[in-house]
């Protein structure tokens, strides 16, 4: 079952159980996926769908930061609830230990020991490694791990 079909099924279930918050979030997710499908002019595969969901999560995280700065905790809580719901449709995110291990492995595979100026190539290798393993990672966390590893050398 494709991701859009699963979301449609969950929308129907949310309607029947009258879960307004869940319903509105699922509709927003479905709309984002449909818009991307229209933009691409062909159906999305699972990887593309997951990229759209990851973008939605990143947007929500940015919103939480802004709402918290602005003293709007109820809005930040609403965004956090949306993130939790969207994450249920994505593969489990990699933990910090897994990210650090992946970064160290990417650094070990480099032909020469990288310096801080090589951060871009290390990031590219690490992100490719996580993508190949089918792991979902936050680019900011990977970036911080790469900086920490390169600074420690």
Query: How can the largest sheet be summarized?
Result: none
- Please tell me the total number of domains: 2
Q: Report the portion of residues in β strands.
A: under 5%
Terminal CA distance: 47 Å
Task: Outline the structure in words.
- This protein is mostly helical and 153 residues long.
- It has two domains: 3-87, Hypothetical Protein Yqey, Chain: A, domain1 (Orthogonal Bundle), CATH 1.10.1510; 96-151, Arc Repressor Mutant, subunit A, CATH 1.10.10.
- It contains seven helices and no strands.
- The chain has helices at 3-16, 20-40, 46-69, 73-87, 96-108, 119-132, 139-151.
- Helix 5 crosses helix 7 (139-151).
Jot down its keywords.
153 residues, mainly alpha, Arc Repressor Mutant, subunit A, 2 domains, 7 helices
Write the layout of secondary structure elements.
Layout: H1 3-16, H2 20-40, H3 46-69, H4 73-87, H5 96-108, H6 119-132, H7 139-151
Helix pairs in contact: 1-2, 2-3, 3-4, 5-6, 5-7, 6-7
What does this entry show, briefly?
The chain is mainly α.
């Amino acid at each position: 079952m494709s991701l859009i079909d699963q979301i449609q099924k969950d929308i129907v279930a949310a309607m029947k159980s009258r879960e307004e918050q869940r319903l509105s979030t699922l509709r927003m997710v479905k709309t984002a996926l449909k818009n991307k499908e229209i933009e691409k002019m062909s159906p999305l595969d699972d990887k593309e769908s997951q990229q759209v969901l990851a973008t939605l999560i990143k947007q929500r995280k940015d919103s939480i930061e802004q709402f918290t700065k602005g003293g709007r905790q109820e809005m930040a809580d609403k965004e956090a609830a949306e993130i939790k719901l969207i994450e249920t449709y994505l593969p489990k995110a990699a933990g910090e230990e897994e990210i650090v291990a992946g970064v160290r492995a990417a650094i070990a595979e480099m032909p020469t020991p990288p310096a801080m100026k090589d951060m871009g190539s290390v990031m590219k290798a690490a992100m490719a490694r996580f993508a190949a393993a089918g792991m979902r990672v936050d680019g900011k966390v990977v970036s911080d791990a790469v900086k920490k590893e390169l600074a420690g050398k």
